[in-house]
Structure formats: C-alpha cells, structure tokens
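pipeline: protein-struct stage 2 | run 1193 | Pectin lyase-like superfamily protein
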Amino acid sequence: MDNKMCYFHFLISILLLSIFNTSSLAAPPSYNVVSFGAKPDGRTDSTKAFLSAWANACGSPRAATIYVPPGRFFLRNVAFQGPCKNNRITIRIDGTLVAPSDYRVIGNAGNWLFFQHVDGVTLNSGILDGQGTALWACKNSGKNCPSGATSMGFSNCNNIAINGLTSLNSQMYHVVFNGCNNVKLKGVKVLASGNSPNTDGIHVQLSSDVTILNTRISTGDDCVSIGPGTSNLWIENVACGPGHGISIGSLGKDLNEAGVQNVTVKTVTFTGTQNGLRIKSWGRPSNGFARNILFQNAIMKNVQNPIIIDQNYCPDNIGCPGQVSGVKISDVTYQDVHGTSATEVAVNFDCSSKYPCSRIRLEDVKLTYKNQPAAASCSHADGSASGLVQPKGCL
C-alpha cells in the first residue's frame, strides 16, 4: 500500500510539473487593435482602441504583443504611458497609422504618438503617415501656424528597439528621444519633402547608448540632430538627402547645459544636402561642450557645407549679437571623408574666439569643388592634419 501511495504521489508531482512547465511556456498574450474596435478604413477614430490594447499589454505580468493588421488606422494624439508590469512589449505594425489631415487637431499637442516612462518596447515595421504637407504650406507662407507635432516621441524610456519603421511627412520632427537609455534603431526610413520645415529625421537629447543603423533619411531639416546631454551615440550606414545633414547642436542655447560626448558617425552618405558633418552652437555664453567626436568614412555628393563647425549661430540676430559662444569643442576627428562640395569652401571651422576649438584632426580628407581642390577656412581652431588632406588644412 505504501509503495502504491508513493507511486501515486510521484505521478501527481510529474503531472503538476508538466502543467507548470506548459503554462510557463505558453505563448505571450497578443492584442489585436481590431478586437478593441479599431477600423482599418483610414477615417474612423481608432485612438481609444489603441489605448485599450496598450492598457492590456502594459498591465500584463508577462511579455505581450500588440498587433496592428494591414489597413490604414486613423489616430489622434496618443500617449502610451508606463511604467508597465512587464518589460517586453512588442508592437507589430503591418498597416499604416494615419494622423489627422487637419493640422489644427494635433498641431499644438507636442507629439502625435508618445511613449513615456516605458521599459522594454520593440516596434517592428509599419508606416507612420504624419500628413504634414498642409502645415508645411502654412509655415512656408509666413502665416501664424501651430508649431506641429512630432510623429513619434519617447521620453524617459529605456531599452527601446525600432526595426523597419517608415515615417512619412511628419508635421515637425519624425522621431525624438529625450531622456532615454539603450535605444536601437535599425532599417528605419524617413521621408519628407526637402522644403518641409523643422522636420528633423531623428533627434536625440539627454540620452545615452543610442544606436542608429542602416537608415535612409530624406527630409527638410537635419537628418539626425544631436542635442545637449547626448552621450555614447553610434550612427552607422546612414544615407542622408535631401536635408541639412547630421548635426550636433544647436548647443549653447542655455547658459547651463549638459554637454555632448562620445559620438561616432561612420559609413554615411550625403546627397545634395545643405550640410554634411556639422557642429553648431549659439553665439552666446554657455557651459556646454562637445568632445570625443569621430566622423569616419563619409561620402559627400554635391553638399553645400561638407565639414562645418559654426559657433556663431544666431538665427534672426536675436539674443546673441555681440556675444561669443561659451561651448567648448574638442577632440573631433574627421577620417576618410571624400566627395564633392557645392560651394568653394568645403571645410569651415568657425569657432569661438573665447574658447577656440582644440584637437581637431583631419585624416585622409579629399573634397573637390567643380573638379578642382576645394578651399578651407579656419577661425580660432587648433588641430592637426595627416595623410592626404585636400583642401590643404588651415589648422
């Protein structure tokens, strides 16, 4: 009898263990936005449905998926708030998210799609259609217009991955990271007209450990803009154009400002852009800085300012005439930069007279203008040149 009881208890234990393992390995819950009332017709407001799907995924103690099937889903401004009960939420978008065509609906909202205080979110594929053309026309006409909404913003988020996303025609910035850590973008496409104002492709500020890979950006402002407080940023294999280039800055707008450091930009191509590799700061007092910057393996195709440091930025000559930049720029390397300039001066270092640029390095740089060697201009810049450098350095 005792042996039978022992055997019975053994079988029960095996059965319970099997049930536990099966449940623990069960597929994570998936929430289809259509199940919550979203309509893929491009007209019906699906905002509440997306928020309901998010509430379920965010409230799940296990990893969860939000699924957006094919179709066009109309959304007003949406805030996906954390913290969540799990740190593995995947949003898979097989359709297109569509902003209101009337820019007044979200034009003063700051963000169209906004993630805040979330940890561990992955967005896969999909298209964001910001429908910003009407607002661009308003701005370009000189009328009084809303500032416009960023298509997708992340604030105080950690462990974010964006794969294969396409952002079209944002009202203002396309994608913004503010106060975020450990972010990876791969295979992202940004598309907007070359005359679309303030439509930066990817903007990073007050963030660390951000990686941008294999990305194509065509827009009306900076392809990538790097704001104060950015550190450990890696940009690789990016095609930019049209646009204003890859820009560190504007820095030094505020007197007390976090600096930028440890930035690598490599294997990038600029086509018909206003700038190539740019660092710019306001021409007024600030304790900001930019240091430990590497620009490596860049190709310029008819770029107006292939290499430029502008420390006398003063739009509309308001708030800075007669002052000098306090931003300290140091340890900036330009390595293996080739191509054509659309202007005679291809290398322009216009640094602060109070805090000159220091340890600027040019290594294997060859830039031409109309099939002739381009020119270089240096003001308050100190550094060195090595290898073949054309235009001949003025450091």
